[in-house]
């Protein structure tokens, strides 16, 4: 009986979602989102974070549902676009497609670029579909249970999210955590809701509204990325400039080799995508490593093995979809990109969390159904229009970056129609560049910036309700488990770092975006 | 290769100074409150303290190991920042077209790849895009041209 009622509920939710998404405006924003996502995703030098930060100011004046649909479309659209550059140029369009280069580019050199592009699109769609299905099945249950969470649980969960995201991503864990804290302090700038005191405003009036999300994101990611890329950009050489439809048809051997990696990749991506910190990047690498391990002949990898592109692409797309589960049902984002989605929702006056799923079913299920529509559009955009994406890839970076800078400045101005926001971009661009030089990554800072004020609020409420007693954090089972997990992640991260730094003392810190 | 990892020594020192500054400023400027009723100063003061400790964790071991200092792309950094600055200064008194022109011309100078002709075409396209897309279509209250007098 219970199973039957779940399906009734699901049918209900699908109907609500379709009702919300099937309006001309929302369909248009879904299409626009995935198109832009695919476009900037394919361009090397513009990562998903830069893409989102460039484009999200233009969603500020939309309805919350339309804004969310478009923003999400940009996000998962980049995952489709990312593999195109990996295969044709041997340069990943996205960090999470980096591993696709290993076998995708050799395939292209063997004249099999068409098959590679076609099969990665199929794998991406399969991965995304499973991710969406999981979101549809689990979100209502998670939200129902999370309705009982108090400020203790929220504080602990946010702490776990911040620690996991900042220590697992890249480089030294101490640096990641330091950046989270710096982000939290920057998030506190402005009027304190509890006391009405303006914090870190230095009596400068525009600072009372706090730091603009658009400015800090574009300043820390967009501009330093441009400055660093202008000089380092390489002359790309195409393997194939035109790809015929005939060349896309996979052989029987390709098909029989692909289905198992597709499923394994999807499983890895779905699981790790929902966890904070891991996400699409880590799951794509894990999927590749697993394929190499289970393969009968591991020496084929790196020389154009189709399993080596199928598994990571299925994994990163699945992870991109399941990353929405904690963000939407708990209000706790696992990556900086998801934190930006959350931040935009807050600006729209929508508080993410379990109440969102229950109180705004149209928004939540509209988003979920837009995933289906967006993914179908992406498959349609990808396969017949592949020639166009190849042309996009051949735009040289020296024509691209002035356009990026114009978008950064106009976008920052657009949010509040204030030049002070552009000044903020300038300041954060300078800070962001030096952070890059010093190996301090900006993604955890953004996460702290968005989650920090909420964490302080939950902490204050928790201590007020328990009359200053910290033990309640450990007496409540979910909060205690989460805190224990946070501590475990922290210890594990430091131990792993010290072990690796002793084994390979000069290991370069990989700058990653997530 | 240098005998000390100055990159991490510097980031550690910067974080230590920043953390101490945040804590001291919060303690002296805002009410601390009690654990039960936290004042606006307590959370940032604690965070500043943790930041300072992390600064030491990052900086002190770095003093005793070798490391490399990445090169700073000085030309690109200065030119890009100056271009954005020019955009900000020109935007309100003179309008968006001069601002975008300055930004695009400036940005192009960060690199030697674009020819004069290419730069002019780029400026024309960007000026047209900002006016048509942002001002007309998205309704950003830009003025295309202004004269402050």
Beta content of chain B: under 5%
User: Helix- and strand-based class of chain B?
Assistant: mainly alpha
User: How is the main sheet of chain B built?
Assistant: none
**What is the chain-wise order of helices and strands of chain B?**
HHHHH
What number of domains of chain B? 2
Q: Any idea what the shape of chain A is?
A: globular
Distance between the termini of chain A: 41 Å
Mean pLDDT of chain A: 86
In terms of quaternary structure, the protein is heterodimer
How many strands appear in the DSSP assignment of chain B? 0
Residue-averaged pLDDT of chain B, rounded? 89
Give, in spatial order, the strands making up the sheet with the most strands of chain A.
1-2
Could you spell the SSE succession of chain A in H and E letters? HHHHHHHHEEHHHHHHHHHHHHHH
The low-confidence parts of chain A are 505-514
Report the sheet-strand fraction of chain A.
under 5%
Number of helical runs of chain B? 5
Rg of chain A, alpha carbons: 22 Å
Envelope shape of chain B:
flat
Radius of gyration of chain B: 24 Å
User: Which chain pair shows the most residues in contact?
Assistant: A-B, 60 and 68 residues
Helical run tally of chain A: 22
């Amino acid at each position: 009986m219970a199973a039957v009622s779940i399906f009734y509920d699901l049918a209900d939710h699908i109907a609500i979602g379709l009702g919300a998404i099937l309006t001309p405006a929302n369909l248009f924003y879904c299409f626009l989102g995935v198109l832009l996502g695919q476009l900037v995703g394919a361009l090397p030098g513009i990562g998903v974070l830069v893409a989102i930060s460039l484009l999200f100011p233009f969603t500020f004046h939309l309805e919350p549902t339309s804004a969310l649909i478009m923003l999400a479309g940009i996000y998962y659209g980049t995952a489709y676009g990312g593999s195109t550059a990996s295969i044709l140029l041997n340069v990943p369009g996205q960090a999470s497609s980096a591993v696709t280069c290993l076998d995708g580019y050799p395939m292209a050199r063997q004249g099999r670029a068409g098959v590679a592009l076609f099969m990665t699109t199929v794998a991406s769609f399969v991965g995304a579909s499973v991710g969406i299905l999981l979101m549809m099945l689990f979100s209502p249950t998670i939200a129902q249970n999370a309705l009982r969470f108090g400020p203790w649980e929220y504080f602990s969960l946010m702490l776990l999210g911040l620690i996991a995201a900042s220590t697992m991503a890249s480089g030294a864990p101490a640096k990641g955590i330091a950046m989270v804290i710096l982000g939290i302090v920057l998030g506190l700038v402005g009027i304190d809701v509890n006391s009405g005191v303006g914090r870190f405003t230095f009596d400068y009036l525009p600072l009372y509204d706090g730091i603009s999300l658009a400015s800090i994101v574009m300043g820390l990611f967009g501009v330093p990325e441009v400055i660093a890329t202008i000089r380092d950009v390489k002359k790309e050489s195409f393997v194939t400039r035109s790809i015929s439809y005939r060349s896309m048809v996979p052989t029987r051997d390709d098909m029989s080799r692909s289905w198992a990696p597709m499923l394994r990749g999807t499983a890895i991506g779905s699981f790790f995508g929902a966890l904070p910190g891991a996400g699409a990047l880590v799951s794509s690498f894990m999927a590749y490593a697993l394929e190499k391990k289970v393969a009968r002949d591991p020496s084929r990898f790196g020389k154009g093995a189709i399993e080596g592109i199928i598994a990571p692409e299925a994994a990163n797309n699945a992870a991109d979809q399941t990353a929405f589960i904690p963000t939407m049902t708990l209000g706790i984002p696992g990556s900086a990109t998801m934190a930006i989605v959350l931040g935009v929702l807050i600006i729209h006056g929508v508080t993410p969390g379990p109440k969102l799923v229950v109180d705004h079913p149209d928004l939540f299920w509209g988003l979920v159904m837009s995933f289906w529509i967006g993914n179908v559009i992406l498959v349609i955009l990808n396969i017949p229009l592949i020639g166009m994406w190849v042309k996009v890839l051949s735009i040289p970076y020296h024509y691209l970056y002035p356009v990026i800078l114009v978008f950064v400045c106009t976008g920052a101005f657009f949010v509040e129609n204030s030049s002070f926001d552009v000044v903020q971009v300038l300041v954060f661009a300078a800070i962001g560049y030096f952070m890059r030089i010093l190996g301090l990554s900006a993604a955890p800072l953004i996460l702290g910036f968005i989650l920090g004020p909420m964490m302080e609020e939950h902490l204050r409420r928790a201590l007020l309700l328990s009359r200053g007693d910290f033990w309640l954090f450990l007496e409540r089972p979910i909060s205690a488990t989460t805190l224990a997990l946070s501590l475990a992640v922290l210890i594990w991260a430091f131990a792993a770092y010290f072990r690796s730094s002793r084994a390979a003392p000069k290991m370069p810190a990989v700058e990653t975006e997530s | 290769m240098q005998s000390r990892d100055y990159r991490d020594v510097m980031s550690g020192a910067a974080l230590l100074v920043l953390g101490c500054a945040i804590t001291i400023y919060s303690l002296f400027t805002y009410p601390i409150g009690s654990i039960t009723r936290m004042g606006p100063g307590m959370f940032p003061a604690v965070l500043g303290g943790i930041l300072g400790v992390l600064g030491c964790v990052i900086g002190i071991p770095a003093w005793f190991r070798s490391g490399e200092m990445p090169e700073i792309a000085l030309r690109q950094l200065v030119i890009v920042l100056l271009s954005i600055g020019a955009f900000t200064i020109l935007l309100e008194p003179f309008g968006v077209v001069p601002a975008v022109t300055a930004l695009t011309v400036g940005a192009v100078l960060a690199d030697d790849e674009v020819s004069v002709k290419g730069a002019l075409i780029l400026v024309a396209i960007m000026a047209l895009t900002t006016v048509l897309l942002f001002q007309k279509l998205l309704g950003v209250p830009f003025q295309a041209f202004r004269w402050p007098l």
